[in-house]
């Protein structure tokens, strides 16, 4: 599995094992269909973006119970011999259909469908939800930032405040799918090939005591990749010292690529810094900003014309501060060839194995989605595509660059109403007549 991502099959909820035990004792091992979807969009989201499929497929491919794991389960009384024997030979041999990573989706739409023997499809629920929920949540937040700052370089800075190591690593990946240009998380560069970006910390300046000396030491060690942090003491004075250093470096091959501002009024500060740099002829030196940024601040800086070339975005994206969870579910929709429908108040599901058809207008913009039975054929592009059959991938992984390019096309195809960052309702998908009829039929026989 991807480096840094846990893969133990015990990373699950205990009730998955207790249900498996009961399924096996009652010989309930026929084929089941489960679907992952989001019941309701957060108030602050007009759309969501799919991400995390690659980690799900890796998890399913490598699902194994080692002898040590089985010994622990039996020794502590968490599994009977019947269950231990079943788990010893367990491999995922089912089918997976899913939306491609980077796909925009809406409430009630199945993002992923698993078809497998009931005990296995049940067992994988917790980890599948864990992987999809988090990356979909982060990609959806990051996509709003991409829309807020078109044409600007966006870099993930959020590892240090992410909720754990895996969260920091996968947030970098999800943000890249949504259109970010890179990350400061080094392991994400190694694990996923995401471009790495980094500048310096205030501690580097403070350790030197002398700001200009710190700048010069850093630029001589990194002559081809220097972005200087200029707000440790006074931002204007820091910019003037960059000018002084540039004069010292005149005649050498060393060039200062940019400066970073991490505090204060970024609009005012960036204008002052740009004026100082331009007056010295340093037009090519870029301005990079960071510091508690979210899509609202990015949009405001963009609207006001702040001369900032790129942004480092951390905490507010990596914890999705305004919508820190999605109301997602992984529900049984069919068992032994028979559709199933949950009818709980406020949590009813559409029954059966389903497909989502997307329609576009003549300009290629999203016009609407239709949720239909998988057996139906409808107008539009079917969004759920086969990615695994019999436990084997149907094709090699498309790669993260392809997912990012797909996400870019998806955002470009959003109509203005969905691109709007302000809270507001988005039209939900339509539901086919056949699917509604099936739901009514099950309700009548319930």
Automatic annotation (TrEMBL):
Enzyme Commission no: 6.3.4.21
CDD domains: NAPRTase_A
Pathway recorded for this protein: Cofactor biosynthesis; NAD(+) biosynthesis; nicotinate D-ribonucleotide from nicotinate: step 1/1
Catalytic activity: 5-phospho-alpha-D-ribose 1-diphosphate + nicotinate + ATP + H2O = nicotinate beta-D-ribonucleotide + ADP + phosphate + diphosphate
Protein function: Catalyzes the first step in the biosynthesis of NAD from nicotinic acid, the ATP-dependent synthesis of beta-nicotinate D-ribonucleotide from nicotinate and 5-phospho-D-ribose 1-phosphate.
Family: Belongs to the NAPRTase family.
Protein name: Nicotinate phosphoribosyltransferase
Organism: Acidihalobacter prosperus
